[in-house]
Amino acid sequence: MADWDIKKLRILRTLQELGTVTATAEALHMTPSAVSQQLTGLAKSLGVTLLEAQGRRVRLTDAAQLVLRHAEAVFAQLERADAELLGYLQGEVGQVRVGAFSTAIPALVVPAVQELRRTHPGLSIAVREAEAEAAYELLAEGSVDLALSLAAHAPTPRDPKFSRVALLADPLDVALPAGHPLASEPGLRLADLAGEPWIFGSSGPWSQITTAACENAGFVPEQAHAAADWSAIWAMVAAGMGVALVPRMAMAGGIGAFGRGGGEPGGRDGRARVALRVLSGDQPRRHVVAAVRRGSEGAPGLARVLAALRQAAIAQAPREGFHTGG
Q1: pTM here?
Q2: I need a surface site. Which of 22, 58, 99, 141 has the fewest CB within 10 A?
Q3: In the prediction, which pLDDT does 305 show?
């Protein structure tokens, strides 16, 4: 196979444009003898004659013209590659893989992706749902570039493998059946619900968060029902089977996080039979963090995704007061 030396091809193209070895040498800041040596080497590597003497000038052969036709396509592709590489270095193109737990996807990841599509359409985001703890495993093994997790289930900030960015302190509200005696109680505290039947997962992050929040309020919650799916939890609360803590971010992320479970016959939405209350005084929060492999945070594309996630987190401003599910 012929050796297509890009530097020598550029010299040949310049000679075609300027017509003489002397002018080519001046344009390329070379000596005439260096130009001649480079073109002789190119002809030898390609196995063809590139130049013919024409008086005191040289003429490009038909073979040289053929070589240059193909070289122009190569030069054009290199220009496109340079432009794309510059875009990558500026964070305008490329792909960033994001691993995130379920409620973070509609509340934080989707708004961030929508904003980046508008401002940086060449930047691709690939999203992978993962439990809060599993997201770090994916990050460590290189399956994702950024992990959205919870501080309670993340490695320590001193872990040398990761850099962490605090995104959001997500308040936890309480969901009660709409007819519950405490549903309209002013100044409702988590401790007021110590004697209630509770609904939360049998294991995993949400079980730990609920248990820790109640213990911090001075009681151990009585788990009446075990469920991890939000639509199932919402349906059971609507049916009067117990109370549950609900992350504010899940509600802000859209009703899709809860589904339409618990509706009454006739099509009424179960949300209408749930009171969502903001707790006073002892309101628990879960802390959402973004993490990247240490050293990668300076990559422009990754930095743009982090900035978009920060903006999405800022938009999740705490809302105080009394909420109904409808």
Answers
A1: 0.67
A2: 141
A3: 95
